[in-house]
Amino acid sequence: MNTIILRTASNYLLPLLLLFSVFILLRGHYLPGGGFVGGLVAAIAFVLHAFANGLDNTRTLLRIHPGYFMPLGLALSFLSGLAPILRTGRPFMSGLWFDGPLPAIGLIGSPLFFDIGVYFVVIGASLTIIFTITENA
Amino acid sequence: MTTTGQFLFAPLLFQFFLAVLLLFLWRRTDLQRWASIFGNLTGLGLASVLFLRVWRGGALSVQAGGWEAPFGITLVADMFSATLVLLTSAIGLAVAIYSAASVQELRLRLGYFPILQFLLMGLAGAFLAGDIFNLYVWFEIIIISSFVLITIGGERLQLEGAVKYFTINILASVIFLTAIAILYGLTGTLNLADLAVKAKDIDNQALFSVSALMFFAGFGIKSAVFPLYFWLPASYHAPPAAVSAVFAGLLTKVGVYALIRIFSLVFTADPFIYEFMGWIAILTLFTGGVGALVQNNIRRVFSFFIVCHIGFMIAGLAIFSRPALAGAVFYMAHDIVVKANLFLLAGLIFKIRHTNSMKKLGGLYAEYPRLSLLLAVPLFSLVGIPPLSGFWPKVSLVLAGLEGRHFLLVGAMLLASFLTLIIIARLWAEVFWKNGQAPEIKPNAGYFPDMEPKRRALLVAPIAMLALASLYIGFAAEHLQLLSERIASELSDPASYIRAVLP
Amino acid sequence: MEILLAIMVGLLYAAGLFMILRRSLVKLIIGLVLLGNGANLLIFLLGRLVKGRPPIIPEGSKALAGAFADPVPQALILTAIVISFGLQSFAIILIKQAYKVVGTDDLDEINATDEDA
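Above: the input entities. Below: the structure tokens describing the complete assembly.
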């Protein structure tokens, strides 16, 4: 897929889609959205980039292998689930919230970090899968 | 919310932690070996603590995130679950040690240890899950990890085995999911304890029975009962021995666990199901035994034994009296230890002779007399020669069968025991006593005799450990009998389980 | 609407089973995908269909009023879809690898595991 329109557009779409994915990630706790969908949107941003510019260019853009996002995200989710046990002795994955919402982000608490972990796992997993299939094609 | 229930998370979260840690050590396979061994040792410690707490204080339950049952995600550990989590950790430790010495570097580089750990986590999760959809999710974690483990390395035999294993397991998952959908449509709940309460007032009993049969089909495929077992002997001999050992010890048992759990808790009303199960058990015992009779590859013989001996547990469930359930649970504990050990043993024999064919093997006793005596322990425990571990649960099962007037079932059990005896005797004669020839030497193939002593010790240690465990089960049978009778009384009276979840 | 969906579920199961019974590896995977989708749709259907009432509590109130869509089946389906996504991508790579190594798409020729050795 080597059209100039797609290639030019994808360069602008990549940051835009990533921003959108973060927006979806942050609005996720009380409204439709969340880490999973956000991660998929972010992964799609990179896939689109790979479509237009070739896999190698996307690889250099990412710098690290997407697989590394998975342990990172898993660790983050794990810690955010563990936090309530360590802090207050409540069950695994209880919500732990800071007081007072921040502007543009909203309430910050352990579910948000859990979602961010999911976000990274989804990016890592889907990009690894898609890159592997593309490579072998 | 009590804090004692919190401890339930510990074995599960620790497995998860270990898996993530191993992922971070992706390229450091040398560190992975030690992290896996010591991690699983810690996991065994945690599981033992959980076991002791449940033994002293009765069933524990905890709600993830503090959402009350039946809305939240429930984890429950009654005696049955705690015992199986303990056994899982023990097998996990044995396999981690064995893998450190036997699995090739090529496979370790592809993430063997992290995936193995995810598999063990999935198993612990499935045993602790308190609602049926989470059970499904843990099953999926188990099968995804097992797919990777079965294909890792990518040899032809492995890939072909994987295609069969994969297809039938996904089919089982779809059937399981369909059954969950129907059950949810009927009751509006997924929590096992809540289902047990609501099952009595369902109007549409016909659909309820359909759902029960679908659960039986789904779990039946996973636990390899007749006529849904053919995938097992086609795939279990393909992956490395350490992987087969986990599969043999635990994967089919998790299906049996789910069957026992569901059919003692939710679907208890319909006598037809139990009669049906009885027939399935008879056919499983028969076909598995006869299948093992004609095999020449020892790993395939053991694969058919898995099928055959699942029949004993299903028989216990089919009779569905307290002694029968105790027998089934006892058999399960014995079977987990022995079957895992058998595949480790087959792997060791392969390391010594580089073949698994009974025709080519021979003379092991002359060459390694002490090792052969060690290997005799799991082999003859499997048969159930009186003081060894297989004997006691069979006695309970046969007595329970006679008491319930299930004569055909008792006959099938005796026939299967007899077939097992013949096959093991033949195997012993062919592999250990017959004159054998030394294998053709292939360079760099990793022979047992060429290994340095430390690696040899790592290979033999887990076999010795599991052999000791099965000797303990055999010679201290009263402990296990006490435990399995307690489990059986909990299973046949679901009120205690329900009380632990729904206060 | 429910009738239509029920027929759809039946069709998906039937088509899935039909495809599984073919001898080709690729068709096998397609069959499994269809079956999985059928199961997901069945869960959706059994959660009872409610039109235009998402289970989201409006701002300012504390609980849902009136009939609303059951959120549990939707959560289940989401989970099941994610799982089947993982499984299917694994399946695709597996059959590609199997095709490369074995050199055939015909399930009847995949029988090395039954040979005595």
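Note for the figure: The helical segments of chain A are 4-26, 35-53, 55-62, 69-88, 110-136.
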